[in-house]
Amino acid sequence: MFDSEKLAILATNYSLPVNEKMRVGIKGNAVATPLIQQLYKHTLLRGGYPELLVDLEGIEELFYAYANPDQIAYVSPVTRHFLEDIDGLLSIRADTNTRKLTNVPSEKIKEKKISLRPIMDVYHRHVKQGGLSIIPYPAPAYAQEAEMSLFDYEDFVEKACFLDKEDPVKEWKKLSSMQQRIVERLNKVKVLRLVGQDTDLTVYVKGRTWINCDGRINMPDGEVFTAPIENSAQGYIRFSYPGIYEGKEIENIYLAFKNGQVVEAKAEKGQELLSEIRKVEGIDRIGEIAIGTNTNITRFTKVMLFDEKMGHCIHLALGNSFQMTGGQNRSSIHWDILKDMKSGEIYADKELIYKDGQILI
Hints:
By secondary structure, this protein is of the alpha+beta class. The chain folds into two domains: 157 residues, CATH 3.40.1830.10; 192 residues, no CATH class. 31% of the residues lie in helices and 27% in strands. The chain is built from twelve helices and 19 strands. The radius of gyration is 20 Å and the shape is globular. The two termini are 39 Å apart.
């Protein structure tokens, strides 16, 4: 059985250290009630003030079925106040049905994403160490997507988060030390070039800050990332894994860039949705470039919280960039898309630093 308390202790002690009188938002789907309860308990034990924002099954489906255009454009002052008034956020990734929006028109989803821009601006203020921790709960819907039994999926989640270790914090600090060496090297780099199957993409990163993702914002973690200079991307890339957008899959995505902007976007499946997403402001530029390092995550599960950390992959995000990197692109969407690099290379200022899924730094 999954140990929700062990994850809650890791989250409130390491990922988002809770201090006395700290106002802690706990947000998640009711399917994750055992974890919500343990996070609430351990926030109290550490002297914090827990505040809950819990989603119920079926609410999102009802919204898209019956909301009129004005209701879709409405910005909730309750949600906004919740995010503005807390000191830190524990955000749980869990769902009862990952395909619940499959039949919702793409236009409706796009309009709702646009309306959430003011909310996302507030949310992104928390995206920093000590301000946010995104943590998983092994919901049955995710096990189904990963084509695993619930027991196997629980075991997968525990290993990805180092919960199978006697001292998970020690393991995360060990990974942090390894990644810090990589970050220090990349912070001196001017130009990155990605080479692989149907891929030859160059971006400039001079002056941007690389981030050591060591479990103190995402859990699980295991990546280093930055935001490239907004007008610098030149070339093309094909993504090995489907892009997941609101539970819908877009397969075999190919993007071509000129002067930082997407000038061609093709998909083998989901072209209509891909075209609709491109209408969102700011989505036509790269907001993030990242290298995965977590070798405990070895398979694609259709949950990006895990998949983007795979040790043999890189990913790009179209849309919003994180301010901690120095990125300037702003959008209501930050959409991660994943590429297998087991037969790829990365060059930093013409020096080979990554080959066939292995970091050489």
